[in-house]
Amino acid sequence: MGYDEVLLENEEKMEKAVDYLKTEYRGMRTGRANPGLVEPIRVEYYGSPTPLKQLANILAPEPQLLVIKPFDPGSLGDIEKAIQKSNIGLTPQNDGKVIRLAIPPLSKERRQQLVKMAEQSAEQQRVAIRNVRRDAKKQADELVDSGEIPEDLYTKLKDDIENLTRTYVKQVDDLLDKKKAELLEV
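RESULT FIELD:
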């Protein structure tokens, strides 16, 4: 393993931490209809758990309403059950053709709780990024100890790892700021 491999491998790991946070934030309820709220729900469809987004179109025709229109009308009941079992806190309304989910406005207390959850998720990903940095520095130490890279390249590698860490921690911070603004807007 050389200089480039260490940098590339660890950059991918940091990118995954940021992607994970994006996915987690997409499913966080904000008081506004967002298809990402129900997309990850798994529906028992012909004996296998299937993501809802593979079984239906999920639309947000109004800011406070989600409409789920299944490709197969026979799966309507299964989708309704899966939504009720999920912990999103919404009651589906089935009219025989589509399922409607009314998104109630969030209380101030609930918004504050969600902000705290968003901050915790961001901190977990910052820690994950720092752990990747720690592992990358260990790899760099091993490379210089084994003589695979010279001392000056080792110093450059450590600086590059530090710059990567700053870049990805900033991305996490930016995502958190954006999510907080979204949650706190009334």
